[in-house]
Design goal:
By secondary structure, this protein is mostly helical. About 75% of the residues lie in helices and about 5% in strands.
């Protein structure tokens, strides 16, 4: 979540200002529009250092999937809505989630619809969840919608874990490489440095570079640490801007090998989310807006919103997606076929299944490529330092041999 500072005017012309905490800037705009505020300025809050919040709402994706599937089963068995919620609140193992379900139960007992009651807990139940529940209530098929929603949550979580596994392996190897390098520079190289100082003479350039790096880590480690923290804060603030998000997200999906995994994961998430929403009876304009918010990538989100604007003007979904240049040709062609045949939800689900399998393959490929590459990099770093340290020794041996 991020905090945005806004300025605007009410419909009566009264100037107002305030802060709003949401996930993305477009969510802040939407919430302010719902409050009938004409926004004149909206920017990320820059006061102080914004630290990430760990734990979030305290409800994991697994908890939510189990809750949804059990909820669907009980409704399908004919249990009243309030009784279902009461049972679910008592059997959940997380106190924070039990509190949310209990409060939702009270709202429903007071006469609120389930979707409106869930809307009081946006940190747990996102727009997609609430809209699908609303569609299920309107169509009288809440049990079917919840079962479909549970399947979606499980598959979305599985996809997320696959993409994360692709990122964890190189991060771990890189951390080990940096740790080994730092250990050598801090504890081993200074021993050689003292010997070279006693020896005197002109040192080779590679040796000088390694000695300078060692000196920085030993005596100026605090400055290096401050520089890394400052760089992280600057990047965080830059990424909080629209331009920063667009450039960083665009770079991520264009990266060799890793970008392929991220793009296929984003396509699978987009198609499964939109397919699930349309099949559940959510209007396509609302479905595209929700999908854009959950895309996880600014470039893809903007392409989806272009498709939404295209449909509003009476055009197709596939044309703006194709024009964006982000989505693979197969995706846009299959979406076009789905629009022509009136089976867009089925076609989107087929695309999702295909790309989820592609993510598996891409993750395996990434792992097989990164392993030898990281070994070569680690070998190059360690070997380079060893060579840099031995070069003066060769010079010393040649001097001693010449003296004899």
């Amino acid at each position: 979540m991020a905090v945005f500072v806004w300025k605007g005017r009410t419909l009566a012309g009264e100037a107002q200002t305030g802060e709003i905490e949401v996930g993305r800037q477009d969510e802040a705009l939407e919430l302010l529009r719902k409050k009938r505020i004409l926004v004149t300025s909206l920017r990320p809050k820059t006061g102080g250092v914004s630290m990430p919040k760990f734990g979030g709402s305290g409800v994991s994706t697994k908890d939510l999937a189990i809750f949804t599937r059990q909820f669907a089963t009980m409704i399908s068995a004919g249990l009243p809505l309030v009784q279902c919620l009461d049972i679910l609140a008592k059997q959940t193992s997380r106190p924070s989630f039990a509190k949310v379900i209990t409060e939702t139960t009270r709202e429903v007992e007071a006469g609120s619809t389930l979707s409106d009651a869930l809307g009081k807990h946006r940190a747990v139940f996102d727009d997609l969840f609430r809209n699908m529940v609303a569609a299920g209530e309107a169509g009288g098929v809440l049990d079917e919608i919840l079962m479909r929603l549970a399947t979606y949550i499980e598959k979305a979580d599985a996809l997320k874990r696959k993409v994360q596994s692709a990122l964890v392996y190189p991060a771990v190897v890189l951390t080990v490489a940096m740790g080994a390098t730092s250990f050598m520079l801090i504890f081993i190289i200074p021993t050689f440095a003292k010997m070279f100082t006693d020896f005197g003479g002109e040192l080779p350039l590679p040796t000088k570079i390694v000695l300078v790096m060692s000196d920085i880590l030993v005596h100026w480690w605090w400055a290096a640490l401050l520089a890394m923290i400052a760089a992280a804060i600057m990047f965080q603030r830059y990424y909080a801007t629209e331009v920063g998000q667009r450039q960083v997200d665009g770079f991520m999906i264009r990266m060799p090998v890793l970008g392929d995994v991220l793009l296929k994961g984003a396509v699978a998430r987009f198609t499964r989310t939109l397919g699930t929403l349309i099949a559940s009876g959510v209007p396509i304009l609302g479905g595209l807006e929700i999908t854009a918010r959950t895309a996880g990538n600014r470039v893809i989100s903007e392409a989806i919103m272009s498709a939404r604007a295209s449909i509003r003007e009476g055009e197709t979904v596939s044309a703006p997606l194709k024009a964006s240049g982000v989505f693979p040709p197969m995706v846009t062609q299959m979406i076009a076929v789905g629009e022509q045949t009136g089976a867009l939800d089925e076609m989107l689900t087929k695309i999702a299944v295909f790309y989820e399998a592609e993510v598996d393959t891409a993750v395996d490929t990434l792992t097989s490529i990164i392993e030898p590459v990281m070994i070569v990099i680690m070998g190059g770093i360690v070997g380079g330092m060893v060579v840099a340290m031995y070069l003066p020794m060769f010079k010393l041996i040649s001097v001693v041999a010449g003296g004899d």
